[in-house]
């Protein structure tokens, strides 16, 4: 029931809108994958059904409605979203909370496997990735049936939910939300869109008459505005019959009104506005030009090509911005430009940026000038070639992993097909269209596209930022002058280095394989010992078609550094990534890697160092070439470091005094017992104690001995592919026989109870932040870890019911658990919430009561069974993920426990029972140190 508005994506702290909704689409013009079973019931409800074999025996169910906040009358402002909340609280076939109870008994988790969102033009409900059986399939379609028009909406549930929605509003009422409301009239040109923000008017939410909500429900929740979307591993014919049988009984109300389509008017003059807020963290702007949107009937293959052209231009501009950001003294810290669907019959071309507080005028000029220069001088053939390589690679890779695309990804495309007639084609057909586009599109057409969209007409310009006396925001006249100046400038054509480059100047001489051993419990897994002392582990899986997950790990980490080295160590990874590799700067490296599906980066933790990444099968050699360079030719570029440092200092400066940062820093300090080996990020620390020469020295120390690393490959790998590559790019690097071990750096939470309750000035968004944390020594075993996970799941559900649903005191409480074996065995259990200041003490009390109840009375049979089912469900899903395998194998490399083995889960689970769980909970809670970090607003 979270408020998620998919039309709106926050990019660079700037609002960009990416989903246009229209009225009912014409079925004859749908560009739809023929494998999708699409139809319309007599009551007007559409359905989209697709078989997807992965994950096996799983399915996702969606009810999609062309109903959102835009349809509310003024006295109903916020009730579309309120109604979405209430849809989980009782229906014809699932009274009270039985809907949640049924799904939880089958391994679903509220907020994760079942959820919903409301936006301006739509409301979408979902049950995701549930294990299927005849009973589950019938019941899930029946839930969609009830969501469609059979909600109970009892007076008691309506009144109980008012406080929950108010708490959600409070959590969302941040600086960006408030500033967006200020500039909404400019974005939407005083249309109805400007008067709706989905969450609504809290005066209405708290005081509306029940009949107002029922009126909205009866008027708009109806099958001729709805669609059912189901994707999963099932028989499509049987699913279609099921949908027709269950959903055909739904009826439209008599004399139901036509679904209104709202529009946004054009404007001749620039619409300009500034919104400031005392809690804003940075200065951002958006300069947007409205264009007529493509009609639903015109969304054909030509429209697909148009979307591809938009994508190419956006990538080309992103390259230009990235190049500018590598220059020291840049007046902006982030920037982006592109063409996006909007609302009210419009698309928009947007230029957006995040600026430094001082020099704002120059920042606006410099961001817009990047786009204006591209418009006047055009992109170069080499730029287009590099972007096109990446563009095609994306479609090729997606087609190569088509069997791995999950149910919810398919569902997103089908939802868009219903809401706005967006084309939904299979990956092979999309690859064909992409190849056709790439072979026919010219550089001239790309340049003309930018010229057409970036026309400075029908535009708005908004600035958002902190409310400070030290900041002077530009006036409308000044911004108009800046735009005019940028447009009148003459720009030189960009010069670029088009010389051919390769990653490696010479091919390394391969090392030897000394031994290959098998892994107990894994038929195809192998341990390979190389002649330089390095170890390689290979775990082939059938979890994906074309996916290799990769990690290299070594013991030691920051624990082996001197205290004065730690500030530089905190910024080591970011610095190395900014610098490039070998003789190649970062931008040059990205050009060389155009069209490669891979990623790799170093990692430096408190007790380990290593690398993390992955690739397609085809690009595994390139991945290992990069790994070779990270060991043999790491790059430490002073210019790149200075640019990076300048940008981070600016960000840290903007965060100073922010209550959220203060709270997180307080929590971190308590959890490390104020150790100097865990310094907090600060502008002063970065400016005075972080040095490039120290970073280089630390890197060469921690990553200097390849013999001390274990290299792990999981996924689409085999002997013939991997062995020659590891000999060449890992075995060729000289190592030594030294084996390091992490050191107990004596950084640990306090060995006593801690209460850090404090007040901090909060100007507008006044709230209580609280973390209650249990910590204790712990025997790290598979059985104990299972019990701790069950404890978390049960307490999480109890606190959700008591703190959110019954008390209405918070929008949500998060319960987390972590168990560690490095450097010592310990376990932590945290409960985090924020609330209205007046309710903080009550919620703290509820946490203590619920924990005490579990200790004294134990878990119920239903709670135990649901937790067991959740664990089984998670295990089943995790075992199909290469990322889970990789994490488990890394754990085995470090501590010798392999949770992939059935003896460390399935066999353990057979012996788990409620009596043992209750004993575990009592013993765990009775011998913990408790830390309370609670921040309240200072009056």
TrEMBL record:
Keyword NADP carried by entry: no
Pfam family, one: Peptidase_M16
CC cofactor: Zn(2+)
GO molecular function: metal ion binding; metalloendopeptidase activity
Residues of the Peptidase M16 N-terminal domain: 51-176
Annotated keywords: Hydrolase, Metal-binding, Metalloprotease, Protease, Zinc
Domain Peptidase M16 C-terminal per the UniProt entry, residue ranges: 208-386, 690-870
Keyword Membrane: no
Example GO BP: proteolysis
Family: Belongs to the peptidase M16 family.
Protein name per the record: Peptidase M16 domain-containing protein
Taxonomic source organism: Imtechella halotolerans K1
